[in-house]
């Protein structure tokens, strides 16, 4: 076997010198290098922003969706949406393990895993698209993929249904980062709290703030709030438009007696929500941006523009133990497990 | 006087409901609201990315630069470059203070200040452009501007020349955040370390890491490194291309005995430097992005793509005491003061 680079740079075709994620085209030849893992793919969980774009472009037509998806992979060697830049993840079965990884990996041939690195950097071949589940952005295929040595993954648990695990793992970074950031007694606001990542953040925040803390759930529509209210995941529920910073600020001032929040987690998958999060945060507080629709410059110049000394964090999709944290929620809470099964699995 | 909103939303013309910074057009009528401050403007320090774009568009012609700048302000009511989205800052003299601010501000009529909020949200009128100093992005004008109640500023010190103070205050957030992040014994890498913000970061990092720490200075050209080397601001000097993540990773591995860095500060004002910073950081280390050329998605997906558990921070241009921290460097170090006077004042 040929020797590979841990980050997969040996697969980059264009432009030379970059990593697989920013590359325009990577090599998806399925003969593995010595530090790669070959996966027999079962299901792609396409990133929500990406799937929405593809589905819109196809006018909702399933055959056209298939055609667009196959076209992307044929052109780039990976399923990276050229409009949104994003990917998704996959589940499949280990088919072959590179010789250099022997004794270094806990995986063996036949294990079923979910890859936790983005499809936007994963070498992929689609032979056939078997089924498109439009409501949950999942696509069953016949095909193969490569996991690089630095690529992260989770073995699928035997006690959680596969599609549920896949949906939850897709946003695993959010609840795990919440655990790292929330302290007892904190006032925590989650924007976009009724979505797939937002609900998991609420769950962890509610556990950690304790009786002296306060968790505020904000979503666009009253009907979305009802869904969360039924689960008792927050202390306060607010409906409002997260792109309207002044409205959010005034509502949060009201429910915090003018004190604002120690931590604001932004999970809204629409643009222009940076300022709402900043204005709702106390001086010296923290804003955690998990949404991929966040603009770096809008956040940086926005905080300066209103003289807010807040710590702003870029949502890293990975943190140690994030897969376990997310799956554990499904074990702990039957109510959440039922809801996620209904909505996303 | 009419009552104003602390964030200046009363000045927003289009689109309605947003803050002055993201607004396309704001009201630059110079009759002040009760919580505003009127400034007689002397000099604009245009943001470096913005000035480069304007100068390029004008083919370097000073009269055309003037025309473009006046056009921007006429159209938007503020000097926000429509291509880069960025602004800059200004110095001027207080001409009038709104009645609602009496007893609430330490400013008085006649004080000379630098505004520390971006020009991209500051109501501005340019009557005449008196001088364009192309080498340092500074433009002397006859005109007026408005500071909002939430707007931050610094009184110009009497012991530092005005143009030097203006240049240093422009990047004041960077050294102040460095002070907050560096711990004794840390290994710190500054990317783009020979630039205006990078050198100030090096200076603070070198003071704080102590004899057990290590400060690594990286810049594109050997000639840039020489400038910093002469000042003794780092322990290790590396020339390299910050857009080539693998090259940066290998060089940093070498000079840190394979341990990588506790903190990486990215001050490179070109795109595609996110991955260099991520790969050069230890697991559990911190990346501080000060450059406005940073892409949120490239950082977020990039860290996940290589399975790096790093804390990534969006460079907030403001933190408490940042103006004092930056000006103090000019008082402490004659060598830096001389260099900044030569290059930027």
UniProtKB/TrEMBL annotation, chains A, B:
SUPFAM superfamilies: NAD(P)-binding Rossmann-fold domains (SSF51735). Residues 207-292 form the Alcohol dehydrogenase-like C-terminal domain. It is an enzyme of class 1 (oxidoreductase). Its EC number is 1.4.1.11. InterPro entries: ADH-like_C, KDD_N, NAD(P)-bd_dom_sf, Zn_alcohol_dh. It holds the Pfam family KDD_N. PANTHER family: L-THREONINE 3-DEHYDROGENASE. This is L-erythro-3,5-diaminohexanoate dehydrogenase.
